[in-house]
Automatic annotation (TrEMBL):
The gene is fbaA. This is fructose-bisphosphate aldolase. It comes from Haliovirga abyssi. One of its GO terms (biological process) is glycolytic process. Catalyzes the aldol condensation of dihydroxyacetone phosphate (DHAP or glycerone-phosphate) with glyceraldehyde 3-phosphate (G3P) to form fructose 1,6-bisphosphate (FBP) in gluconeogenesis and the reverse reaction in glycolysis. Zn(2+) 1 binds at residues 97, 192, 225. Gene3D superfamilies: Aldolase class I. It catalyses: beta-D-fructose 1,6-bisphosphate = D-glyceraldehyde 3-phosphate + dihydroxyacetone phosphate.
Length: 329
Protein backbone atom coordinates (compact mmCIF):
# COMPACT_ATOMS: atom_id res chain seq x y z
CA UNK A 1 0.00 0.00 0.00
CA UNK A 2 1.31 3.46 -0.94
CA UNK A 3 2.32 5.55 2.06
CA UNK A 4 0.22 8.71 2.40
CA UNK A 5 1.09 11.87 4.26
CA UNK A 6 0.28 15.54 4.86
CA UNK A 7 2.02 18.20 2.79
CA UNK A 8 3.50 19.80 5.91
CA UNK A 9 5.75 16.76 6.32
CA UNK A 10 7.32 17.75 3.00
CA UNK A 11 7.92 21.39 3.93
CA UNK A 12 5.28 22.60 1.47
CA UNK A 13 2.92 25.54 2.06
CA UNK A 14 -0.71 26.07 1.18
CA UNK A 15 -1.65 29.29 -0.62
CA UNK A 16 -3.52 31.18 2.11
CA UNK A 17 -0.67 33.36 3.42
CA UNK A 18 0.92 33.55 -0.04
CA UNK A 19 -2.18 35.20 -1.47
CA UNK A 20 -2.73 37.47 1.53
CA UNK A 21 0.79 38.89 1.18
CA UNK A 22 0.47 39.15 -2.61
CA UNK A 23 -2.78 41.11 -2.42
CA UNK A 24 -1.41 43.41 0.26
CA UNK A 25 1.80 44.15 -1.64
CA UNK A 26 0.41 44.33 -5.18
CA UNK A 27 1.94 41.39 -7.02
CA UNK A 28 0.81 37.97 -8.25
CA UNK A 29 2.20 34.57 -7.28
CA UNK A 30 3.63 32.62 -10.25
CA UNK A 31 1.87 29.30 -10.80
CA UNK A 32 4.05 27.34 -13.22
CA UNK A 33 3.15 23.89 -14.55
CA UNK A 34 5.75 21.15 -14.84
CA UNK A 35 5.82 17.75 -16.50
CA UNK A 36 9.27 16.43 -15.58
CA UNK A 37 12.16 16.99 -13.19
CA UNK A 38 14.05 19.46 -15.37
CA UNK A 39 11.02 21.73 -15.71
CA UNK A 40 10.50 21.63 -11.94
CA UNK A 41 14.16 22.54 -11.45
CA UNK A 42 13.88 25.46 -13.87
CA UNK A 43 10.88 26.78 -11.96
CA UNK A 44 12.22 26.52 -8.42
CA UNK A 45 15.68 27.78 -9.37
CA UNK A 46 14.18 30.83 -11.08
CA UNK A 47 11.87 31.60 -8.16
CA UNK A 48 14.49 31.03 -5.46
CA UNK A 49 17.00 33.27 -7.22
CA UNK A 50 14.38 35.98 -7.63
CA UNK A 51 12.98 35.66 -4.10
CA UNK A 52 9.52 34.91 -5.47
CA UNK A 53 6.92 32.59 -3.93
CA UNK A 54 5.94 29.78 -6.25
CA UNK A 55 3.10 27.38 -6.91
CA UNK A 56 4.29 24.20 -8.60
CA UNK A 57 1.38 22.94 -10.66
CA UNK A 58 0.61 19.56 -12.17
CA UNK A 59 -2.46 18.58 -14.12
CA UNK A 60 -3.97 15.12 -13.73
CA UNK A 61 -2.29 14.21 -17.03
CA UNK A 62 1.11 15.39 -15.80
CA UNK A 63 0.61 13.56 -12.53
CA UNK A 64 -0.20 10.36 -14.39
CA UNK A 65 2.88 10.83 -16.57
CA UNK A 66 5.26 11.43 -13.65
CA UNK A 67 3.50 9.08 -11.25
CA UNK A 68 1.35 10.40 -8.42
CA UNK A 69 3.59 8.67 -5.89
CA UNK A 70 6.63 10.61 -7.19
CA UNK A 71 5.11 14.07 -7.59
CA UNK A 72 5.11 15.07 -3.88
CA UNK A 73 8.77 14.17 -3.55
CA UNK A 74 9.60 16.54 -6.40
CA UNK A 75 7.79 19.19 -4.37
CA UNK A 76 9.82 18.26 -1.31
CA UNK A 77 13.02 18.42 -3.38
CA UNK A 78 12.07 21.91 -4.57
CA UNK A 79 11.70 23.11 -0.97
CA UNK A 80 15.00 21.47 0.01
CA UNK A 81 16.77 23.15 -2.90
CA UNK A 82 15.47 26.61 -1.98
CA UNK A 83 16.44 26.19 1.68
CA UNK A 84 19.91 24.88 0.77
CA UNK A 85 20.43 28.06 -1.28
CA UNK A 86 19.39 30.27 1.62
CA UNK A 87 15.98 31.25 0.26
CA UNK A 88 12.83 31.21 2.39
CA UNK A 89 10.33 31.28 -0.49
CA UNK A 90 7.12 29.33 0.20
CA UNK A 91 6.48 26.48 -2.22
CA UNK A 92 3.00 25.08 -2.85
CA UNK A 93 2.20 21.90 -4.77
CA UNK A 94 -1.08 22.40 -6.62
CA UNK A 95 -3.39 20.17 -8.63
CA UNK A 96 -4.40 22.12 -11.73
CA UNK A 97 -7.90 21.51 -13.14
CA UNK A 98 -8.91 18.71 -10.80
CA UNK A 99 -11.72 16.96 -12.73
CA UNK A 100 -13.50 15.19 -9.87
CA UNK A 101 -13.60 14.61 -6.13
CA UNK A 102 -11.79 11.27 -6.37
CA UNK A 103 -8.76 12.95 -7.98
CA UNK A 104 -8.89 15.76 -5.44
CA UNK A 105 -8.87 13.31 -2.52
CA UNK A 106 -6.07 11.23 -4.01
CA UNK A 107 -3.82 14.26 -4.48
CA UNK A 108 -4.49 15.58 -0.99
CA UNK A 109 -3.78 12.16 0.48
CA UNK A 110 -0.47 12.09 -1.40
CA UNK A 111 0.77 15.42 -0.04
CA UNK A 112 -0.55 18.18 -2.30
CA UNK A 113 -0.96 21.45 -0.40
CA UNK A 114 -3.45 23.06 -2.79
CA UNK A 115 -6.03 21.80 -5.28
CA UNK A 116 -8.33 23.16 -7.94
CA UNK A 117 -11.76 21.69 -8.50
CA UNK A 118 -12.83 22.59 -12.03
CA UNK A 119 -16.63 22.61 -12.08
CA UNK A 120 -16.83 25.26 -14.80
CA UNK A 121 -18.31 22.80 -17.31
CA UNK A 122 -21.29 22.15 -15.00
CA UNK A 123 -24.29 24.41 -14.59
CA UNK A 124 -24.03 26.90 -11.73
CA UNK A 125 -25.78 24.84 -9.04
CA UNK A 126 -23.76 21.70 -9.77
CA UNK A 127 -20.56 23.73 -9.82
CA UNK A 128 -21.44 25.01 -6.34
CA UNK A 129 -22.27 21.49 -5.15
CA UNK A 130 -19.08 19.79 -6.33
CA UNK A 131 -16.85 22.68 -5.33
CA UNK A 132 -18.30 22.69 -1.82
CA UNK A 133 -17.68 18.94 -1.49
CA UNK A 134 -14.04 19.43 -2.49
CA UNK A 135 -13.64 22.27 0.00
CA UNK A 136 -15.14 20.26 2.86
CA UNK A 137 -12.65 17.44 2.30
CA UNK A 138 -9.60 19.64 1.66
CA UNK A 139 -10.09 21.89 4.66
CA UNK A 140 -9.95 18.89 6.99
CA UNK A 141 -6.24 18.77 6.09
CA UNK A 142 -5.68 22.55 5.84
CA UNK A 143 -5.35 22.26 2.05
CA UNK A 144 -6.49 25.32 0.11
CA UNK A 145 -8.99 25.09 -2.74
CA UNK A 146 -9.38 27.04 -5.98
CA UNK A 147 -12.76 27.09 -7.72
CA UNK A 148 -13.70 28.42 -11.15
CA UNK A 149 -16.53 30.49 -12.63
CA UNK A 150 -16.65 31.07 -16.37
CA UNK A 151 -15.11 29.04 -19.21
CA UNK A 152 -11.79 29.59 -21.00
CA UNK A 153 -11.57 28.59 -24.65
CA UNK A 154 -8.62 26.56 -25.90
CA UNK A 155 -6.92 23.26 -25.14
CA UNK A 156 -4.66 22.27 -22.25
CA UNK A 157 -4.12 18.58 -21.45
CA UNK A 158 -7.61 17.15 -20.88
CA UNK A 159 -9.25 20.59 -20.63
CA UNK A 160 -10.88 21.71 -23.88
CA UNK A 161 -13.52 24.30 -24.73
CA UNK A 162 -14.47 25.86 -28.04
CA UNK A 163 -16.17 28.97 -26.70
CA UNK A 164 -15.25 31.51 -24.08
CA UNK A 165 -17.81 32.32 -21.38
CA UNK A 166 -16.96 35.39 -19.30
CA UNK A 167 -17.42 35.20 -15.54
CA UNK A 168 -20.62 36.85 -14.35
CA UNK A 169 -19.68 39.27 -11.55
CA UNK A 170 -23.17 38.98 -10.06
CA UNK A 171 -22.49 35.28 -9.27
CA UNK A 172 -19.13 35.46 -7.54
CA UNK A 173 -20.21 36.57 -4.06
CA UNK A 174 -22.83 33.84 -3.84
CA UNK A 175 -20.39 31.22 -5.19
CA UNK A 176 -17.62 32.09 -2.73
CA UNK A 177 -20.06 32.22 0.17
CA UNK A 178 -21.73 28.89 -0.58
CA UNK A 179 -18.59 26.91 -1.43
CA UNK A 180 -16.00 28.27 1.00
CA UNK A 181 -13.25 28.32 -1.66
CA UNK A 182 -9.95 30.04 -0.85
CA UNK A 183 -9.43 31.53 -4.33
CA UNK A 184 -11.45 31.92 -7.51
CA UNK A 185 -10.39 31.48 -11.14
CA UNK A 186 -12.31 33.80 -13.45
CA UNK A 187 -12.63 34.15 -17.22
CA UNK A 188 -11.78 37.63 -18.54
CA UNK A 189 -10.30 36.84 -21.95
CA UNK A 190 -7.31 34.59 -21.29
CA UNK A 191 -7.23 31.25 -23.10
CA UNK A 192 -5.55 27.85 -22.84
CA UNK A 193 -2.85 26.70 -25.23
CA UNK A 194 -0.45 28.35 -27.70
CA UNK A 195 -3.06 29.35 -30.27
CA UNK A 196 -5.05 31.77 -28.14
CA UNK A 197 -5.67 34.32 -30.88
CA UNK A 198 -5.43 34.67 -34.65
CA UNK A 199 -2.82 36.77 -36.48
CA UNK A 200 -4.05 40.34 -36.67
CA UNK A 201 -6.07 40.08 -33.45
CA UNK A 202 -5.57 42.71 -30.75
CA UNK A 203 -5.92 40.64 -27.54
CA UNK A 204 -7.55 42.54 -24.70
CA UNK A 205 -8.39 41.30 -21.24
CA UNK A 206 -11.79 42.31 -19.87
CA UNK A 207 -10.34 44.31 -17.00
CA UNK A 208 -13.81 45.80 -16.53
CA UNK A 209 -15.12 42.34 -15.60
CA UNK A 210 -12.17 41.94 -13.21
CA UNK A 211 -12.96 45.31 -11.62
CA UNK A 212 -16.62 44.33 -11.15
CA UNK A 213 -15.59 41.03 -9.56
CA UNK A 214 -13.27 42.90 -7.17
CA UNK A 215 -16.16 45.11 -6.08
CA UNK A 216 -18.30 42.06 -5.30
CA UNK A 217 -15.60 40.23 -3.29
CA UNK A 218 -13.07 42.88 -2.21
CA UNK A 219 -9.71 41.50 -1.11
CA UNK A 220 -10.51 37.96 -2.24
CA UNK A 221 -7.72 36.17 -4.19
CA UNK A 222 -8.47 36.00 -7.92
CA UNK A 223 -6.77 33.57 -10.31
CA UNK A 224 -6.11 33.88 -14.05
CA UNK A 225 -5.67 30.73 -16.12
CA UNK A 226 -4.36 30.51 -19.69
CA UNK A 227 -2.02 33.46 -19.25
CA UNK A 228 1.02 32.47 -21.31
CA UNK A 229 2.46 35.22 -23.50
CA UNK A 230 3.57 32.70 -26.17
CA UNK A 231 6.90 34.49 -26.86
CA UNK A 232 7.59 34.90 -30.56
CA UNK A 233 11.30 34.21 -30.00
CA UNK A 234 10.58 30.64 -28.84
CA UNK A 235 8.08 29.97 -31.62
CA UNK A 236 10.67 31.23 -34.13
CA UNK A 237 13.43 29.11 -32.58
CA UNK A 238 11.25 26.00 -32.74
CA UNK A 239 10.26 26.62 -36.35
CA UNK A 240 13.83 27.42 -37.43
CA UNK A 241 15.03 24.13 -35.98
CA UNK A 242 12.61 21.69 -37.56
CA UNK A 243 9.41 22.43 -35.67
CA UNK A 244 6.05 23.55 -36.97
CA UNK A 245 4.02 25.86 -34.73
CA UNK A 246 1.96 28.24 -36.81
CA UNK A 247 -0.04 31.30 -35.76
CA UNK A 248 0.78 31.01 -32.05
CA UNK A 249 -0.24 34.19 -30.25
CA UNK A 250 -0.62 34.76 -26.49
CA UNK A 251 -1.61 37.37 -23.91
CA UNK A 252 0.33 40.67 -24.16
CA UNK A 253 2.57 41.36 -21.18
CA UNK A 254 1.14 44.82 -20.54
CA UNK A 255 -2.34 43.32 -20.14
CA UNK A 256 -1.11 40.80 -17.59
CA UNK A 257 0.87 43.35 -15.58
CA UNK A 258 -2.24 45.47 -15.29
CA UNK A 259 -4.08 42.50 -13.82
CA UNK A 260 -1.37 41.69 -11.25
CA UNK A 261 -1.71 45.15 -9.72
CA UNK A 262 -5.33 44.41 -8.83
CA UNK A 263 -6.80 41.54 -6.80
CA UNK A 264 -5.23 38.90 -9.04
CA UNK A 265 -3.10 36.88 -6.64
CA UNK A 266 -2.18 33.95 -8.91
CA UNK A 267 -1.43 33.68 -12.62
CA UNK A 268 -1.08 30.31 -14.33
CA UNK A 269 1.57 29.75 -16.99
CA UNK A 270 2.12 26.43 -18.76
CA UNK A 271 2.49 26.94 -22.52
CA UNK A 272 5.40 29.39 -22.21
CA UNK A 273 7.42 26.81 -20.30
CA UNK A 274 6.66 24.12 -22.86
CA UNK A 275 7.71 26.40 -25.73
CA UNK A 276 10.97 27.47 -24.06
CA UNK A 277 11.83 23.88 -23.16
CA UNK A 278 11.05 22.56 -26.63
CA UNK A 279 12.97 25.40 -28.28
CA UNK A 280 16.05 24.54 -26.24
CA UNK A 281 15.92 20.86 -27.17
CA UNK A 282 15.31 21.49 -30.86
CA UNK A 283 18.22 23.92 -31.07
CA UNK A 284 20.65 21.36 -29.65
CA UNK A 285 19.43 18.62 -32.00
CA UNK A 286 19.56 20.92 -35.03
CA UNK A 287 23.10 22.04 -34.25
CA UNK A 288 24.35 18.62 -33.16
CA UNK A 289 22.22 15.78 -34.62
CA UNK A 290 24.56 13.15 -33.16
CA UNK A 291 23.93 14.21 -29.55
CA UNK A 292 22.33 11.51 -27.40
CA UNK A 293 23.34 12.49 -23.86
CA UNK A 294 20.08 13.73 -22.22
CA UNK A 295 22.05 16.13 -20.04
CA UNK A 296 23.36 17.89 -23.14
CA UNK A 297 19.90 18.74 -24.49
CA UNK A 298 17.74 18.83 -21.35
CA UNK A 299 20.26 21.10 -19.60
CA UNK A 300 20.07 23.90 -22.21
CA UNK A 301 16.27 23.49 -22.33
CA UNK A 302 16.08 23.93 -18.56
CA UNK A 303 18.27 27.05 -18.67
CA UNK A 304 16.16 28.66 -21.40
CA UNK A 305 12.98 28.03 -19.40
CA UNK A 306 14.57 29.26 -16.16
CA UNK A 307 15.94 32.48 -17.68
CA UNK A 308 12.60 33.29 -19.26
CA UNK A 309 10.71 32.74 -16.00
CA UNK A 310 13.14 35.03 -14.17
CA UNK A 311 12.30 37.77 -16.67
CA UNK A 312 8.58 37.08 -16.26
CA UNK A 313 8.76 37.21 -12.45
CA UNK A 314 10.35 40.64 -12.65
CA UNK A 315 8.40 42.15 -15.53
CA UNK A 316 4.93 40.59 -15.17
CA UNK A 317 4.31 39.08 -11.76
CA UNK A 318 6.07 41.81 -9.79
CA UNK A 319 6.96 39.21 -7.15
CA UNK A 320 10.74 39.62 -7.20
CA UNK A 321 12.15 40.10 -3.69
CA UNK A 322 8.93 39.28 -1.88
CA UNK A 323 11.01 36.74 0.07
CA UNK A 324 14.73 36.17 0.61
CA UNK A 325 16.67 35.54 -2.59
CA UNK A 326 18.84 32.47 -3.05
CA UNK A 327 22.60 32.73 -2.75
CA UNK A 328 23.78 32.19 -6.33
CA UNK A 329 27.32 30.92 -6.70
Amino acid sequence: MTRKFNYKELGLSNTREMFKKANEEGYAVPAFNFNNMEQMQAIVEACAEMGSPVILQVSKGASNYIGLEMVPFLGEAAVSYARAKGSDIPVALHLDHGPDLATIKDCIDHGFSSVMIDGSHYDYEDNVKYTKEAVEYAHKFDVTVEGELGVLAGIEDDVEAEEHVYTKPEEVEDFVSKTGVDSLAIAIGTSHGAHKFKPGDDPKLRLDVLADVEKKIPGFPIVLHGSSAVPAKFVKMINENGGKIADAIGIPNDQLRGATKSAVAKINVDTDGRLAFTAGIRKVFAENPSEFDPRKYLGPAKKLMKDYYKEKIQDIFGSEGAYKKAEVR
